[in-house]
Design goal:
The structure is a homodimer of 392-residue chains.
Chain A lengths: L6 E6 L6 E3 L20 E5 L39 E4 L2 E5 L9 H14 L4 E5 L3 H13 L2 E6 L5 H8 L4 E4 L2 H15 L2 E2 L13 H16 L5 E5 L4 H15 L8 E7 L4 H8 L23 H10 L3 E4 L1 H12 L11 H9 L7 E5 L22 H5 L1
Parallel strand pairs in A: 5-13, 6-7, 6-9, 7-8, 10-11, 10-13, 11-12
Antiparallel strand pairs in A: 1-2, 1-3, 4-5
Helix pairs in contact in A: 1-2, 1-5, 2-3, 5-6, 6-8, 7-8, 9-10
Protein name (chains A, B): Pyridoxal-phosphate dependent enzyme
Pfam families (chains A, B): PALP
Keywords (chains A, B): Lyase, Pyridoxal phosphate
C-alpha cells in the first residue's frame, strides 16, 4: 500500500549486538543469550533512514499495510485489522480493539505472523491458545489459504470454542501441560509455522509485536499528540511491547517529541511481569491463582514487558477480578462491552489514581462475547409485563 | 466534524408532496398517506445545494459524524461506528459490518435514532428487538446518558441475551405478540423515544436509514467507483433503502455518475419484500415458516425496500437456510465469521449467478457470535492426542 517493508534483520533483546537475518523468524528465542531459565526474544530492526515522512501524514483505517515500511513483509492478505475507534470515556481515552476482524487486538499480530508463515513457505500455522489468539490465527490462516492447528483448552467458554472452530482450522482441546510439547512436535515434524510461544519464559513470534506497533501510530494520529501514559491488558506483553516500540520509533523518526509511560496491567492472581519488575529479573514465572480474566491469567511472563515498563518509566499494576468486574460494568454503561480481561487497562488506571501531564489511553482488547458465562443463562418471557411494572 | 446538518424536513414516501418539519420525527409513519393496511415511512430532505464537494474527498473511518452535513443532527456521542473494512472475497467485495462497536450494522442506525431521542429531550429510548438492534440501541443510549427499555424475545440465543443485557438497559423478554402494544404504551405513557417500528407495515424511525447511507459513501470511496450491484440482508429494508439513498445522493451531488442495482436478500421462509415486489404492492406481510436466520426472518415488510429494489433496477432474491449455511461456511473459510442472517447478501449473489458490469458488493452485517447454537456445545479434551493423529 505504501511501499515495501524496510525490515532489515532480527536483533536479540538479550544482547543488542546479537543480530540475525530477518528470515527465518527465530521462534524459539535468541539462540545466543537464552538460558534454561530465561529466554530472550528477538525484535525486528528497520532501515529507519529510508522511511518517508509522509507515512504519518495518512489517516488510520482498516488494513495495517498502510504502515508496511515499518512492518515485516505482509505476505498474508488483510482481514481489515486496525483503524479501531478511540473514545473519550470519563477522563481517559479507550482504544476499542474489539472492532477488529475477529473482535480482538490479536488480529494485528496475526496479520504479521501468518505473513511470516506464508513467506517461509510453511504448509500451515500452529498455535496454542485458549481463545482470541487461536481464533485470530485460524482466521488469518484461512484467508491466506494455509492450514491451521489450534491446540486449545476444554475450559474455554463454549461461545469461544464455537468461535475458534468457525474458521475451518483443526481445533483440538488438549490438557494444558500437553499443549506445548505437542506444538513443538507439530513444528518439527509437520513444518507448521508456530505463531505462539515455545520457550521457557515467553518469546513468542519475533514479528508479533510489530503488528501492535500500529496501535501507537494510530493513537498518535487520533490524539494529535503522544499520550502521557498507556495502560494495556498484559499477559505475555507482546501488546505492551509493541505499543512501546511504536512510540519509540515515532520519536526516533522525529515525528514525535516524547514517549508515553507504559503500564503493564495483570490480574492480581498472577502477574509475572509485576514479579519480574519487583525482583529485577529479566522475566518471571509465577503460580497463578484463579481468575476469570482467563485471556491474561497465565503463569509465564517475558522480557518484552519488563523492557517496555522499565524503559518507559511506567509501572506494573495488579488488578483483582472485582476491580476488573467494576471496570467492565462501568465501561458497558458507556456503551462498550468488553471481555473481562479486556478492561485490565482501565481497571489499572482507576486503581493507580495518578495524575498525568497529558492524555491517558487504556487499550480495551476484546469483545464481551468472549467472556466466561456468556450464553449460560436463559431469560424466560414475562407473560404479563405492564408499563406500570417498568415504572416501579 | 465537517459542519452541521443540512437536514431540512421530512418527506413522505407515500406522496413526495407531503412534507413535514424535521422534528419531531414521525415515528408512526406518514399521517397523510398511511392506511390501515399500508403504512408509508418518511425520509429526510437536505439542502443539497449547500453540500461542500470536499466532503467526499475525505477517508472513511470510525464515527459517521464525518458525514454530518448529510445526516440528521448527531446529538448523541459516537461509539466509533462506520469505517468498516471492504474485502475482496472471490469475485465479490464483502463489506464487513461486524467490525462496528456492537458488531453489527445497526450501530450506524442507532447513532442517528438515539441522537433524535436526545434532540427531542426524551428520558430514554424503547426498542423491540430479538438481537442486534436492541443491544445497539442500549449501547448508544448508555453512551448518551439515556435510559433504554429493550423488549426482547425469550427465544434469542443465550449469548445474545447476555449481549443485550450488558449495557445496563431494562431488558425484558415478552411474548412476541405483546411487544408492539407494550412499546406503543411506553412511548405514550413514559415519553420514551421509539427506535423500532410501531406501524402495520414497517416504517420504523424516519431517521434510521440515514445512518446506513454512510455505507454507500464508504463503498464509493473504498472502491473508487460506484459498484454495479449491492446485495444486503433484508428484514425491514432500512439498510437496503439507506444504501440506495446514499448512492442516489452521490449521483445527485455530481460525485458519481451512476447508481448500483440493489438486491433485497431475504430468507425463503418469509420474504415480505419479495412478495410485495412480485404482486406490485407497496409493502406486504407474510406468514413466515421456520428459519435460523432469526434476525431477518420476520413477517413484516415495508415500502422502503420496494422503492430501493424497484427504482434501482434490482431484484428480490430469496435464500434457503441451506444456502445461507453454505455461504456462512465458505465465508468463514475466508476468515470472516458471520451470523447466519449476515451472509444473506452473499448467499443471494451466489444463487442469482448473474454477471454485472462492475464490482459487486455483498454487505455482511453481523458477527457469528450472535448465531443460534453458539455456546451450546462443549468439546472435551483429547487426553492422548498425538501428532500422528493430526497427520492421519
Amino acid at each position: 500500500m505504501n511501499g515495501s517493508s524496510l525490515a532489515l534483520r532480527q536483533r536479540s533483546l538479550g544482547d543488542a549486538s546479537a543480530e540475525f537475518p530477518l528470515f527465518p523468524p527465530l521462534t524459539r528465542g535468541c539462540p545466543l543469550t537464552s538460558t534454561s531459565e530465561i529466554a530472550y526474544p528477538l525484535e525486528v530492526v528497520y532501515d529507519y533512514a529510508r522511511v518517508d515522512g509522509s507515512l504519518f501524514g495518512q489517516e488510520p483505517g482498516p488494513d495495517i499495510a498502510r504502515w508496511s515500511p515499518l512492518l515485516p513483509p505482509l505476505d498474508a492478505p488483510t482481514l481489515g485489522e486496525g483503524g479501531t475507534p478511540l473514545l473519550k470515556v470519563g477522563d481517559v481515552y479507550v482504544k476499542d480493539e474489539s472492532s477488529n476482524p475477529t473482535w480482538s487486538h490479536k488480529d494485528r499480530l496475526n496479520r504479521v505472523t501468518v505473513s511470516a508463515a506464508v513467506a517461509c513457505g510453511a504448509p500451515g500455522v500452529v498455535v496454542a491458545s485458549s481463545g482470541n489468539h487461536g481464533a485470530s490465527a485460524a482466521a488469518y490462516a484461512a484467508r491466506a489459504g494455509l492450514r491451521a492447528i489450534v491446540l486449545t483448552s476444554a475450559d474455554s467458554p463454549p461461545a469461544v470454542q464455537a468461535f475458534t472452530r468457525a474458521y475451518g482450522a483443526t481445533v483440538m482441546s488438549v490438557p494444558t501441560e500437553k499443549r506445548w510439547p505437542l506444538l513443538r512436535e507439530i513444528v518439527d515434524r509437520l513444518g507448521y509455522h508456530p505463531v505462539s510461544n515455545q520457550t521457557v519464559t515467553h518469546t513468542g513470534h519475533p514479528f508479533g509485536p510489530e503488528g501492535y506497533k500500529t496501535i501507537a501510530y494510530e493513537l498518535f494520529l487520533q490524539l494529535g499528540e503522544v499520550p502521557a501514559a498507556v495502560f494495556a491488558p498484559t499477559s505475555y506483553a507482546e501488546l505492551l511491547y509493541g505499543v512501546w516500540k511504536g512510540f519509540v520509533e515515532l520519536r526516533l523518526l522525529g515525528v514525535a517529541g516524547r514517549t508515553p509511560r507504559i503500564f503493564s496491567c495483570e490480574p492480581a492472581a498472577g502477574g509475572p511481569h509485576a514479579r519480574a519488575l519487583a525482583t529485577g529479573a529479566p522475566a518471571a514465572i509465577v503460580e497463578p491463582g484463579p481468575s476469570d480474566a482467563y485471556s491474561i491469567a497465565g503463569p509465564v511472563g517475558g522480557h518484552r514487558g519488563v523492557v517496555a515498563v522499565r524503559d518507559s518509566g511506567g509501572e506494573a499494576v495488579l488488578v483483582t477480578d472485582e476491580e476488573l468486574r467494576a471496570a467492565q460494568r462501568d465501561l458497558a454503561r458507556e456503551g462498550l462491552w468488553q471481555e473481562l480481561a479486556g478492561v485490565a487497562g482501565l481497571a489499572a488506571y482507576r486503581k493507580l489514581r495518578r495524575d498525568f501531564d497529558g492524555p491517558v489511553v487504556c487499550v480495551a482488547t476484546s469483545s464481551g462475547f468472549k467472556d466466561i458465562g456468556v450464553g449460560s443463562r436463559r431469560y424466560p418471557a414475562v407473560e404479563d409485563l405492564t408499563v406500570d411494572d417498568l415504572m416501579s
